[in-house]
Specification:
The protein is built from six helices and no strands. With 182 residues, the protein is mostly helical. It has one domain: Ferritin (Up-down Bundle).
C-alpha cells in the first residue's frame, strides 16, 4: 500500500491514537495527584474517540464509500477495545515508548509524561495537518482539520499543565488544596 494513501495515513493515525490511549491510561495510573489522574483519563478518552473516527473513515474507504463527514463517522457505534484494537492494514514501524518498570510515580515522572504527551500530540498534529493539506476531498479535509484542532488543544493543555507544575511543584496550590481534599 502506498505510504501516502488515505488508508496508510489513517492507519498511521490509528496507531498514534491507540498508543496515545495506552500512554494516557498508564500515565493516569501513575500520576501522583488526582487532578493529574483526571487529566490523563480525559485525554485517554479523547484518544479513543479519535481512534473510532479514524477506524470508521478507514472502513468507509475500504468499502468503497469514500470519506464520511466526520460528525457522521464519530456517531457510528461499534465494539472497540482501544488498548488492543483489531486494526486493519500493516502496523507502522517503531512503537512509542511509554514507561519503564523501574520508573516510580513522582511529580518528575508526571512532568516527563506530560513532555512525552506533548511530543506525541505535536507529531499527530503534523501528520494530520500534512494529510489535510494534501487532500482534495472536502470530507477528508474536514476530518483531518478536526483532528489537527484536537491535537493542538491537547498540546496546549499539556503545555499549560507542564508550566504550572514546573513553577509550583504540585498539582494544586495551597489555596486550592482544601477544595480538593474536602
Amino acid at each position: 500500500m502506498d505510504r501516502n494513501s488515505p488508508q496508510s495515513i489513517l492507519r498511521y493515525g490509528m496507531s498514534l491514537e491507540r498508543d496515545g490511549y495506552r500512554f494516557y491510561t498508564q500515565a493516569a495510573g501513575r500520576a501522583v495527584g488526582e487532578r493529574g489522574k483526571a487529566m490523563f483519563r480525559d485525554l485517554a478518552a479523547q484518544e479513543e474517540q479519535h481512534l473510532r473516527l479514524l477506524l470508521a473513515e478507514y472502513r468507509s474507504l475500504d468499502e468503497g464509500r469514500g470519506w464520511l463527514p466526520y460528525h457522521e463517522a464519530m456517531r457510528l457505534s461499534f465494539p472497540l477495545d482501544p488498548a488492543n484494537p483489531d486494526l486493519p492494514g500493516e502496523e507502522p514501524q517503531g512503537p512509542l515508548p511509554v514507561f519503564t518498570p523501574d520508573r516510580q510515580p513522582s511529580l518528575q515522572g508526571d512532568l516527563a509524561a506530560i513532555e512525552f504527551g506533548m511530543e506525541t500530540e505535536q507529531l499527530s498534529q503534523e501528520v494530520y495537518a500534512g494529510a489535510a493539506q494534501a487532500t482534495a476531498d472536502p470530507n477528508a479535509h474536514s476530518a483531518l482539520k478536526f483532528l489537527v484542532g484536537q491535537e493542538e488543544e491537547h498540546y496546549r493543555l499539556l503545555q499549560n499543565t507542564h508550566d504550572y507544575l514546573s513553577r509550583n511543584n504540585t498539582w494544586w496550590d495551597s489555596e486550592e488544596k482544601p477544595f480538593f481534599t474536602g
